[in-house]
Amino acid sequence: MRRNRGLVISNKVVKDENNSPRGLDRRQFLKFAGIAALAAVAGGSIAKLGFIKNDVQAEDNSTSSNQVLSQHQWAMVIDLRLCDGCGGCTEACSKEHYLTPGITWIKVYELTGSLGQKYYLPRPCMQCENAPCLRVCPVHATYKTPDGVIVVDQNICIGCRLCMGACPYAARYFNFKDPPPVPNTLPKPSPEWPVPQIRGTVGKCVFCIHDTRVGKLPACVTGCPMQAIYYGDLVTDLATNGREAYKLSTLIESNDAVRLKEELNTQPRVYYILGHGQDLNF
Predict the structure, then answer these.
(1) How far apart are CA 20 and CA 247, in angstroms?
(2) Could you list the residue range(s) of the whole structural domain that residue 95 is in?
(3) What is the pLDDT of residues 193-252, one digit of tens each?
(4) Count of domains forming the chain
(5) DSSP assignments along 135-189, one per residue
(6) What is the four-CA torsion angle of 44, 50, 52, 57, rounded to 10 degrees?
(7) Helix (H/G/I), strand (E/B), else coil: 113
(8) CA dihedral for 181, 45, 19, 54, sign (positive or negative)
(9) Residue 282 is assigned to a structural domain of this protein
(10) 200 within 8 A of 32, measured Cβ to Cβ
C-alpha cells in the first residue's frame, strides 16, 4: 500500500531543548507545518518544497534571476535500505519528460553486496561540482545553472558524445531516435525543460528544476512508492522525500551517507545511505 504523500516533519529529526527540529528556525518549521496541512487537504497530490525562497522562470537568464537561483543549491539523498528496485522512479521520470523507450535518465541497477545479497542502486545524474562533462564539450552546450544543476542546450549540442565518454557514471544518453510526440500544451522547450528531446543530441537528468524552482518535487521523488529519494537544498540545509522533512546535513552525517566514486574528485551532489552490506563497487 502506498503511504500518504503529505509532507510532515519527521520525528526522527534531532530536536533541540524546545522540541523543535534542530537547524530549522521557527519560521521554517511553521512553513513546513503549513505545507503539511495543505497537502493533507489536497490529498498530497503535489508535494511542495517548504524551502523555496522565490519562484523564478527557467528561461529568465537576467543577472537578478541568476542571483535568486543561486540562493538554492540542489542535492539528492537516496536511502538504499528502502529501495526495492521497483523502477517507480524511472517510470515517473520517463513519463514526465516524454523519453524515448529505452532511455532512462534514472536507471536502477541490481547489484550484489559484500555478503552476496542483491540490492538496488538508482542512478540519476550526479550533478557533480567538478564535472568532467563540462570540460570536454567543444561547443559549450553543457553548462551548470546558478542553482547547481548541469544541463544540455540541445540547440547547440552537435552530438559528438565526448561528454558521454567523460562521465564516469554513464548518466548521459544519445538520442538516436525521434522522441514520442508531446502535447502542444507543454511549456516551450529549454535546457532546464528539455521536452521533447532532439534527435542527434545528448540528454540527461536535470533534477526536474523546471518543477523545483516553483516549489514542486522531482518526478523520481514523487514516483518512489518507498519514499527512498530525498531532494534537498545545500543552502537552506533542508531535505524532503515528500512526507518527511530533515536537516540535510544531519540526514547525510547521521546515516554515514556516501557518494559514488569519490576517489575521482568529481564531488557528486547525490548521496547514498547504505545499511545492508552494500559495497558500491559500481
Answers:
(1) 12
(2) 8-273
(3) 999 999 999 999 999 999 999 889 999 999 999 999 999 999 999 999 999 999 999 999
(4) 1
(5) HH-TT--EEE-TTS-EEE-TTT-----HHHHH-TT--EEE--SPPPP--TTSPPP
(6) 10
(7) coil
(8) positive
(9) no
(10) no
